[in-house]
Amino acid sequence: MSENNAIRYGHDSEDSDEQAFARKRADMVHHQIELRGIRDERVLEAMSRIPRHLFVPHKLRDRAYCDTPLHIGEGQTISQPYMVALMTEMLGLTGSEKVLEVGTGSGYQTAILAELARFVHSIDRIASLAESARQRLAALGYDNVEVHVGDGSVGLASEAPFDGIIVTAGAPGVPAALCSQLAEHGKLLVPVGSQTLQRLHLVEKMHGQLRTRESTGCVFVPLIGEDGWTV
Questions:
Q1: Residue 6 scores a pLDDT above 60
Q2: By mean pLDDT, which of 7-16, 132-141, 200-209 is the weakest?
Q3: Residue 224 phi, psi (nearest 5)
Q4: C or N terminus of the chain, fewer CB within 10 Å?
């Protein structure tokens, strides 16, 4: 095989892989998300665009569009696609919001939020994950995201208030610091419960008062920090 043919073959192989991933992504959005009740067109469109396989370890790329969380290293996971869609829809983003994400992880949820909000601050306590996510998001062209390293359980007071706060780890209770950083009409989503089983809590700030309602059961890794679990 000539060098030119080898290069062309390599490109054809990459194109074929991307087409296969695109088909898997479309199937994921339709069967795992839309048919399970997610109706926000902006959420569906964002999840149809974003290449989830680029946010998981290379050895797991064939499973990137499966209906399950996947390990990404450091004891952390990328959330199940349906849970990403559900939590994002519950925030009700319109495009004008400043959002805080607690638990950057792979950066996949961050990318979804960046597609739907004006600006996203994301924070992770694990520096290596934060740096990998920062590079991945930059490579994909997201310029409305800033990734921080720190204790996400106490939020990011320097950038508050936030129109939306999403926590992608399970907390023993609703973190008071995050509630204090909500803007008027802001929404906070956080899984609350034990370290092995939680329920989603949606906190809304209306006329200076906080209203909380519980939603579906879920399982997230523990939220480690001052206003979360100890190591």
A1: no
A2: 7-16
A3: -95, 130
A4: C
> pLDDT exceeding 90 applies to what percent of the chain?
92
79 in active site: yes
For 185, the domain range is: 69-218
- Output the CA torsion sign for 28, 213, 78, 95: positive
Q: Is the pLDDT of residue 9 over 80?
A: no
Number of domain units in the chain: 1
Per-residue pLDDT tens digits for 111-130: 999 999 999 999 999 999 99
pLDDT band at 12 (very low <50, low <70, confident <90, very high): low
Of the candidates 125, 115, 101, which has an alpha carbon nearest to the alpha carbon of residue 187? 101
The arrangement of strands across the sheet holding 182-193 comes to: 145-149, 119-124, 98-102, 162-167, 182-193, 198-206, 209-218
Question: Rounded to an integer, what distance in angstroms lies between the CA atom of residue 122 and that of residue 131?
Answer: 11
Pairing of strands 182-193, 198-206: antiparallel
Residue 64 lies in a domain: no
Q: Is the pLDDT of residue 13 over 50?
A: yes
pTM: 0.92
> Which CATH number characterizes residue 96's domain?
3.40.50.150
Let me know if residue 46 belongs to a domain: no
Q: Find residue 189's DSSP bridge partners.
A: 166, 202
Residue 161, preceding peptide bond in cis (omega within 30° of 0): yes
Active-site residue, selected from the candidate residues 13, 79, 128, 215: 79
Report how many helices (DSSP H) and strands (DSSP E) the chain contains, helices first. 6, 9
